[in-house]
Structures are given as structure tokens and as C-alpha cells.
Design goal:
With 375 residues, this protein is of the alpha/beta class. The chain has helices spanning 2-21, 57-71, 90-99, 112-119, 176-186, 199-207, 218-230, 261-269, 276-290, 303-318, 320-325, 338-350, 354-368, and strands at 27-31, 37-41, 45-50, 78-83, 106-110, 132-138, 142-147, 165-168, 190-193, 213-217, 234-239, 242-243, 249-250, 293-298. The protein is 43% helix and 18% strand. The longest helix has 20 residues, at 2-21.
């Protein structure tokens, strides 16, 4: 009888050890004195969902961030990128929210083309910022420039332009939206020809004379347009600017000598901009440039996992080696501390109101023939 009991106990012990060794989860739990389960990372692999094709700007950003972020997570887990493209990033972000385990082992990287459809409450969007906790955020910038054929020296002289302005873009509901709203604020009569496959092809259209006013984001502008400015073939007009912690438009730190939309408006009209168009511009400048790229984790993930990821994100801000290595990828902009990022996103959502969204819908329909409510 004793032998049978010892055999049974031994068998149970072997089975339990086997099951423990086969656990697939990246988090393990242990009981603490208050009876609650405290969880922590104990696995070598996390997943970073990138809702775009490989090779694009957000994919490059997401892939670059995996190693420095892992460096500051206890145990230094590997972070594997999974590309889930489609719908301008909507497909992959929907899948992340609906299908990926909410255990703290799955992250997602988003950018402006993810944020705009959410703010516009497009029917295809199934994700919400309320379901996500932001970890890392990084800005970018943009510069609007014109052809030297316009015969002006800077944006302050836009009121003197006599010939028709043509703008080549991709989509009025993508990154172009902020630039198009800036034209509306400044009362610039620019004919937008949309449908180009990217900012690169749009730049080529400018170079070939198909358009005479254009914009490029920071790196593309510095690499491709500044040489043309030096050669006298392009004229910088204004930067799109950045939104500071008080919600105001300020000069872009990468283009400190270029005026913002606010400054150009004041020069053209004698007063500072105000009204719904201006408020809408600030709102989408924040969502598309000041908060251009964000790494998130599910808000319903275990608190201990989220705290560990937040701590890693805050350590990243202070990492001098990371600042040097990320100079090219982040275009010399600095990432936000986790607390600052949360505050900026809270303010963004708080300032998303019916008047702003209605203005955008009316603007898209009237100026570009796009019914945003049906997207």
C-alpha cells in the first residue's frame, strides 16, 4: 500500500514538473501574502506588431526600437516584429486589439495614419486609445516649400503669389491632411491633385513641374529639398511646427529659422489665427506630427507587466547611448517620457470634440469630394 502511494505521489510530481516546463506564456505568476497574483516577465520573446509593410518609416522605427527597449526590460527579452499590413494600418491595429493576447507580451507601433482614422471615428476602426497604454512616443516635423518660379523669398510673401498653386499628395485623410488644413488656415488657393503613392512620388511631381507647392517630413526635406534650396530651385515657406505642452504651436526644433503657420498667418492678415479651422489645425498637427509614432501595450495587460514596460520606457529617455544611436531614425527629435506621453494623449482625446470632427468632414467633402463618414 505504501509503495503504491509513493508511486502515485512520484507520478503526480513528474506530471506537474512536465506541465510547468511546457508553459507557453511569457509571464509566470507567484502568490504573495495578500493572496493576489503578482506577475513578471520570464520569457525570451515579446512581439511588436507593425501594421504596415516592411521597409516603411514606421516599420524601420519599430524594428529599431526593439533592441534599446529590450535593454531596459528586466531579463532583456527579445522583441520580434510582426508586420500586419492593410487598410493604411487599420487592419493590423484592429487585429492587435481583437486577436493578440493581452498578457503584456504583445506591443503595437502606430503612426499618423493610424491616429487620424481613429480621431475621425471611421467605421472601419475597431481600436481605441482607451484600450491601449502608451509606452514610447516620438515626434517628427514637416516643411512646406514652393518652386522658385513663384518668385517669392519665403512664406511671408505668399500673398504676393500670382500664379495658380498645385499640390501633389496621397490622400486627404492621411498625413496630407495637416498640410491641406494649413492651406485652409492661411487661405491659400492650392489645387490638390491626390492619389500619389507616397511622398517620394509627390516630390518627383514637384521636381518635374507638375506641382509648385509641396511638403516633406524632416529627413526627406533635409536630404532631398535643402540641396534644391541651396541651388535656388526651391523656397522654404513655413514649417508645420510642433505642439508644446500647453497646446500651442511653436517652431520645430529641427527648423528653428522657419516660421510656423501661426507666424505666416499673422504676417499675411495682421492678426493671430483663431476660429475652428485654426483649432482643427492644432489638433491634427498634434496627432500627426507631435505624436507621430507611438508604441503601445494593451491597457488590460497585467499591471506588473505594464509598470515594467513603463519603467523601461522612462529609462530609455535617459539613455545617452540610445540618444546617439537613434539620432538618424528619430531625426534628432527626443522621445517623450512615459508620463509626458500619457498626458499628451489624454489632452489629445480631451480636445477631440464634435465641432472639430464636423469641420474636417465638411472640409473633406467640400474641398476634396471625400465623404469621411463612409470610410
Amino acid at each position: 500500500m505504501l509503495v503504491r502511494k509513493m508511486y502515485a505521489l512520484t507520478l503526480i510530481l513528474i506530471i506537474n514538473l512536465f506541465l510547468a516546463g511546457c508553459q507557453p506564456l511569457s509571464l509566470v505568476s507567484s502568490n504573495v501574502t495578500n493572496g493576489k497574483e503578482e506577475e513578471g516577465y520570464n520569457e525570451e520573446l515579446l512581439t511588436m506588431v507593425v501594421p504596415y509593410e516592411s521597409g516603411g518609416g514606421t516599420d524601420v522605427f519599430g524594428r529599431f526600437m526593439t533592441k534599446p527597449l529590450s535593454k531596459h526590460i528586466q531579463g532583456n527579452p527579445s522583441i520580434q516584429v510582426e508586420n500586419v499590413p492593410g487598410g493604411g494600418s487599420i487592419t493590423g491595429t484592429n487585429e492587435y486589439v481583437n486577436s493578440y493576447d493581452k498578457d503584456g507580451t504583445n506591443l503595437v507601433t502606430t503612426s499618423a495614419s493610424t491616429h487620424i482614422p481613429y480621431l475621425l471615428d471611421q467605421s472601419s476602426v475597431q481600436y481605441s486609445f482607451d484600450e491601449l497604454t502608451p509606452l514610447v512616443g516620438a515626434p517628427t516635423g514637416g516643411v512646406v516649400y514652393g518652386s522658385s518660379d513663384l518668385d517669392i523669398k519665403n512664406g511671408f510673401e505668399l500673398g504676393q503669389v500670382k500664379e495658380k498653386l498645385f499640390y501633389a499628395g496621397m490622400s486627404p485623410t492621411g498625413l496630407d491632411l495637416t498640410t491641406l488644413i494649413s492651406f485652409e488656415v492661411l487661405e491659400i488657393d492650392a489645387k490638390a491633385v491626390l492619389g500619389y503613392e507616397g511622398r517620394g512620388p509627390a516630390r518627383v511631381a514637384f521636381e518635374q513641374g507638375e506641382s509648385n507647392i509641396d511638403f516633406q517630413t524632416t529627413t526627406a526635406y533635409k536630404q532631398n529639398i535643402e540641396p534644391k534650396v541651396e541651388d535656388g530651385k526651391a523656397v522654404p515657406l513655413y514649417s508645420l511646427g510642433q505642439i508644446d505642452e500647453n497646446g500651442e504651436v511653436v517652431r520645430d526644433p529641427q527648423f528653428p529659422d522657419l516660421p510656423t503657420v501661426k507666424e505666416v498667418y499673422k504676417e499675411l492678415h495682421g492678426v493671430e489665427p483663431e476660429g475652428q479651422a485654426w483649432e482643427t489645425y492644432k489638433h491634427f498637427l498634434n496627432a500627426t506630427y507631435t505624436l507621430q509614432k507611438i508604441i503601445w501595450v494593451h491597457k488590460s495587460a497585467p499591471e506588473s507587466a505594464k509598470e515594467e514596460l513603463k519603467e523601461a520606457a522612462n529609462k530609455l529617455v535617459k539613455d545617452e547611448e540610445f540618444k546617439q544611436e537613434s539620432s538618424t531614425i528619430l531625426e534628432d527629435y527626443e522621445i517623450y517620457s512615459q508620463d509626458e506621453l500619457e498626458k499628451r494623449i489624454e489632452d489629445l482625446e480631451k480636445n477631440t470634440n464634435e465641432e472639430t470632427i464636423k469641420w474636417v468632414y465638411d472640409f473633406l467633402l467640400k474641398e476634396h469630394g471625400v465623404d469621411g463618414r463612409k470610410l
